[in-house]
Structure formats: C-alpha cells, structure tokens
C-alpha cells in the first residue's frame, strides 16, 4: 500500500544541520517500493550542483508490522522506522528514532496536503515532545520531480 511516488511535505527534528540549513530546503520526491512483501526501499531524489541524484535506502522488516530497521555504517548506526499513521491514498507519517533522538516526517501523494492532515502531523510531533520551532515544511516547487536516468547515481 505504501508503494509509489510520495512528496516530503514536512519534518520535525532537533537535528542541528536541519536547523542551520532550513533556508535551503527544496522540494523532495521519494519513491517507495515494497520488496519481498516485507522490506521497504526508499529512493530519494535530491538536487546537488544542478543535477538530480538518487539516494537509495533499504529498510529491513522489524518485529512488528509497520516497523522497519535502517542500518547505516558501523555497529551503532541503526535507525528504527515506524509508520505512525497512514492513508495510502493521501499521506503517511513516519517516525525515525536513533538512540534518544526522534524525528517525524510527513509524506503526501501530492506536494500539498489538507489542513486536516497537517493537524494530524502536528499532533504526532507534539506527542513525541517536538514543537513548532523544530518543524520544517518543504517547498512545493523546484526539486527533482522528473528525473532522467542519466543524471542519477
């Protein structure tokens, strides 16, 4: 149900890099694919130096439905990913937790979501102790919405 094209609409995080570079946010599109009925692959298309690049991440199934594990470099670099709420036709809210740090992302089937969906997102971010001052909304213009294979790595 999560497969297909999604747009990153908003993100709440205490990440200092995000806070320092929030003025550089660009529209971001992702493609989600379910492999073997369990694993989730997310391809994120980002612009860098005027070119669109594809970043692929493989989320492994965890112990419960809707829970995934993203492994990074090294033994301590793992991120737990949980589907907080979803309507596969319009939005998905994902929680990302690494150690004691948590982030919440809102994806939409379109780059604009309803006020009701934004309200749900804001309820989720408050529920984990995040606030408006660490919530960022992504622009709906620019970015890499149509990606030529030759420009992606």
From TrEMBL:
<dbReference type="InterPro" id="IPR000566">
    <property type="entry name" value="Lipocln_cytosolic_FA-bd_dom"/>
</dbReference>
<dbReference type="InterPro" id="IPR012674">
    <property type="entry name" value="Calycin"/>
</dbReference>
<dbReference type="Pfam" id="PF00061">
    <property type="entry name" value="Lipocalin"/>
</dbReference>
<feature type="domain" description="Lipocalin/cytosolic fatty-acid binding">
    <location>
        <begin position="3"/>
        <end position="138"/>
    </location>
</feature>
<dbReference type="GO" id="GO:0005579">
    <property type="term" value="C:membrane attack complex"/>
</dbReference>
<protein>
    <submittedName>
        <fullName>CO8G protein</fullName>
    </submittedName>
</protein>
<dbReference type="GO" id="GO:0006956">
    <property type="term" value="P:complement activation"/>
</dbReference>
<dbReference type="GO" id="GO:0072562">
    <property type="term" value="C:blood microparticle"/>
</dbReference>
<dbReference type="GO" id="GO:0070062">
    <property type="term" value="C:extracellular exosome"/>
</dbReference>
<dbReference type="InterPro" id="IPR043245">
    <property type="entry name" value="C8G"/>
</dbReference>
<dbReference type="GO" id="GO:0001848">
    <property type="term" value="F:complement binding"/>
</dbReference>
């Amino acid at each position: 149900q999560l497969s297909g094209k999604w747009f990153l609409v908003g993100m709440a995080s205490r990440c200092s890099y995000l806070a320092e570079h929030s003025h550089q946010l660009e529209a971001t599109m992702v493609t989600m694919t379910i492999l073997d009925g369990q694993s989730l692959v997310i391809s994120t298309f980002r612009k860098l130096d005027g070119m669109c690049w594809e970043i692929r991440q493989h989320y492994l199934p965890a112990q419960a439905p809707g829970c995934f594990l993203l492994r990074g470099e090294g033994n301590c670099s793992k991120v737990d990913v949980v589907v907080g709420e979803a309507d596969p036709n319009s939005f998905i809210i994902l929680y990302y937790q690494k150690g004691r740090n948590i982030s919440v992302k809102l994806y939409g089937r379109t780059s604009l979501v309803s006020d009701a969906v934004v309200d749900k997102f804001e309820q989720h971010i408050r529920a984990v102790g995040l606030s408006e001052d660490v919530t960022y909304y992504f622009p709906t213009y620019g970015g890499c919405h149509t990606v030529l294979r030759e420009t992606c790595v």
